[in-house]
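Ticket closed. Logging final result for Probable periplasmic serine endoprotease DegP-like.
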Amino acid sequence: MRRACLLRYAATAGLGLAALLAPAPGFAKGPVSVADIAEGLQDAVVNISTTQTLKERNGSPPGRKGPKTSPFDELFDDFFDEEGPDGSPRKVSSLGSGFVIDPSGLIVTNNHVIEGADEIIVNFTDGSKLKVIKILGHDPETDLALLQVKPRKPLKAITFGDSSILRVGDWVMAIGNPFGLGGSLTVGVVSAVKRDINAGPYDNFIQTDAAINRGNSGGPLFNMDGQVVGVNTAIISPTGGSIGIGFAVPSNTAVRVLNQLKEFGETRRGWLGVHVQNVTDEMASTLGLEEPMGALVASVAPEGPAGSAGIKPRDVILDFGGQSIRNMRDLPRAVANGTVGADVLLKVLRDGELLDLTVTLGRLPASEDDEAIETEDSDGVKELLGLTIEPLTADLRAKFEISGTVDGVVVTAVDPDSPAAKKRIEVGDVIVEVTQEAVHRPEEVVARLRAVEKSGRRKILFLLANADGDLRLVNVPIS
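Final structure:
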């Protein structure tokens, strides 16, 4: 009897244990799998390998805009760096990602992945390789490039989705080539949209916590419908690896740029011809605004579209073609996306009165491709190469006792660990010329620096003046 009772207890206990071990129905297989979506996409995601010859023995490849520890790290990965004898050329090979958008052989990647490359090879998931026969176009401002290969048979291609409907919290998926590990997939959410990381005048990034690393650059960011909603471009990483903060160019921006690259081999951005700044709290009431908003016109190019339309300094542009301008950064994006030659209605606040003006949008000249509209902080302060630089105002001239014969941009702070500090640039020094061109505003210094970076040079030449006007030349390393 007792034995029967024990057996009965054991059976009951066994059933209880089985019940405890059985997974709850809702968590039987974990979160919903993305395997079915990914299976149809991986063949269209490719690895991009490039090779280029550098004549300079020291320095990083032209495609890299900063050291590996820079905060806004690129995702492009050097995997082979062979140095020849002193002064001899060396070859650098690099890996990135890309994706097919047309079965006939059109492939998207980042501009910095292929910039300066002597040879570009596209590697597919089945092990096949194709050499890029033509770079149809590239755009440094959005960091996009369109490549052409000649396949033996139609390629698997993927389509773009609408990035404008993305919301914070939406699930996204990245596929790419991190650290040379092709076909890697990660999943995360949209952390933010319309993110400005000060990479350029058209910043409008999608931020995601989907793990992306070096080598993912140029790869696609997908929505859960398997459509490309972004092109992975940059990460914040003090370590060089993913810390969950990555950035992608929105698909709507990419499609517009890629269509122009395909048709014209270049981008054709709108041009307004104004120099703008933010409206501060102090300015708002003076300008007749209840709160700081809009883009304040600081100057107008006399023969530019804005000048012809009657836009004047001190005007506040509040709306461009139906797009609300909340701050100065909104305007360059809106203008760049406009159609060259089109008439656009602007809402402008002038002396407290709201005006409607019509401007015929011009085309941004190629020589001004750094930015369609110059922008600056309200005080004009810029930071670069460890230097804080500001316009040489009367107050700063008096503060640093700078001679009235000196003109340029004044250094107001120096990072003691920066290359500039090692070159003995000091607070109170005035940058008179950059690469033998006179400068009068901080943004002119920035523009010269960008031009030097794009040329592939590793140093930038400053002509400096001290407070007494004594001049000296200083060659400052860029990275």
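The two ends are 86 Å apart (CA to CA). No further action required.
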